[in-house]
Design brief:
Blueprint: E1 18-21, E2 28-33, E3 44-52, H1 56-67, E4 74-76, E5 85-93, H2 103-108, E6 112-120, E7 131-139, H3 144-157, E8 159-160, H4 173-184, H5 191-215, E9 227-230, E10 233-236, H6 242-250, E11 255-260, H7 270-281, H8 284-292, E12 298-301, E13 303-304, E14 307-314, E15 317-325, H9 330-335, E16 339-340
Parallel strand pairs: 1-16, 2-5
Antiparallel strand pairs: 1-7, 2-7, 3-5, 3-6, 4-5, 7-15, 8-13, 9-10, 9-11, 11-12, 14-15
């Protein structure tokens, strides 16, 4: 299995230890955190499920059949891994207030449990979640001591906030398709497909900008023209505030950001612009797709620090527990710990 991220720089050097992730579904557990309460009434039935070895889209489609509604009437806040044990909410548009009998559905799919139901006045929408809590077990680790040493460093400095390989599709197919669409000016009404390819295009450019910053030892060092971020607030680095901004980053008060490319000009200047612009220019087909769909430029923090990070080891297994904000990838942490051994799966 080729690794589409293999060319990207490591913050702590390429791991010397090998190991497996998701060798068993229970080795990768995800618990969705929406961050808000439901109304308790409304047209939408909210269902919290626990699924093992199933992807979110499949479960949603089968729930739609069980409820006698169209697939578009079932929605979610985030797609969850298939090869894992995951908990998340789904919403089903059932305005009459009927309570479906899910007994046959649950009998047909023992890999799915319904943990809780309630009602709400709005459907769930993609991205409408605060984050996720993870429990990840690395198995068959060849050098547990090295992994534990790296965890100490990660707890202190974080890891590169890379988009994971799943963002780019199987063997990077989404990225190649995005380049083709940009080159051939493909138009489509398929919103999901377009959104998926646009995400792959912007994520790839971001990853490469971040990788260059690491290679130039600028992961925690600001340069003139950088855009820093704290919550929804942004600030530009110039010669007058360079030292103060470096101190703010060191104190974790502000985050260095990199470009999520759009059809408007980059806001970075001077040295920071010199770091970012070549990576946009290097991908004319991806930029054609981005600009053709009028995507607006955005910023993303380059550093990822897991919340409530803890770990333990037993034999050749290391288990991590942590929370991440929405849009961040647990695999970005694992990448800094082990060189992953491919797990053979029976489909």
């Amino acid at each position: 299995m080729s690794d589409i991220l293999s060319s990207l720089a490591y913050l702590n050097g390429k791991p010397t230890a090998t190991g497996k992730i998701k060798a068993q579904p229970e080795h990768f557990q995800v618990n969705e955190i929406l961050g808000y309460e439901f109304a308790g009434s409304g047209e939408h039935l909210m269902i919290r499920i626990r699924k093992t070895g199933e992807n979110t889209s499949f479960v949603a489609n089968e729930l739609a059949k069980a409820c006698g509604v169209k697939s578009k009437d079932v929605s979610w806040a985030g797609l969850k891994d298939r090869h894992a044990v995951t908990e998340q909410w789904l919403s089903i548009h059932l305005p009459k207030g009927d309570a479906p009998d899910f007994s046959e559905f649950l009998k047909q799919y023992p890999s799915i449990e319904i943990l809780e139901t309630t009602r709400h006045n709005k459907k769930l929408r993609p991205g409408e979640l605060s984050g996720n809590h993870f429990s990840v077990t690395l198995s068959e680790v060849s050098d547990v001591a090295d992994v534990l040493k790296r965890l100490e460093s990660i707890a202190e400095t974080g890891v590169p906030n890379y988009f994971g390989s799943q963002r780019f599709g199987n063997q990077g197919n989404n990225l190649e398709e995005a380049r083709r669409w940009g080159k051939e000016n493909v138009r489509t009404r398929n919103q999901n497909k377009r959104s998926m390819l646009l995400s792959a295009a912007r994520s790839w450019i971001f990853n490469n900008i971040l990788s260059e910053r690491i290679e130039q030892n600028l992961f925690t060092q600001v340069v003139e023209g950088d855009v820093l971020q704290a919550g929804s607030e942004q600030a530009q680095v110039d010669t007058d505030n360079l030292e103060a901004m470096n101190q703010a980053v060191s104190a974790s008060e502000m985050n260095i950001t990199a470009a999520m490319a759009g059809d408007n000009a980059l806001p970075t200047k001077a040295r920071a612009l010199e770091l970012e612009q070549p990576h946009l220019d290097a991908e004319p087909d991806l930029m054609a797709l981005i600009c053709g769909n009028r995507m607006r430029h955005d910023r993303r923090a380059i550093s990822l620090k897991a919340q409530d990070l803890s770990w333990s080891s037993e034999g050749d297994c290391v288990t991590l527990k942590f929370s991440l904000d929405a849009g961040c990838f647990a695999t970005a942490i694992v990448r800094e710990l082990i060189e992953e051994i491919e797990v053979e799966r029976v489909y």
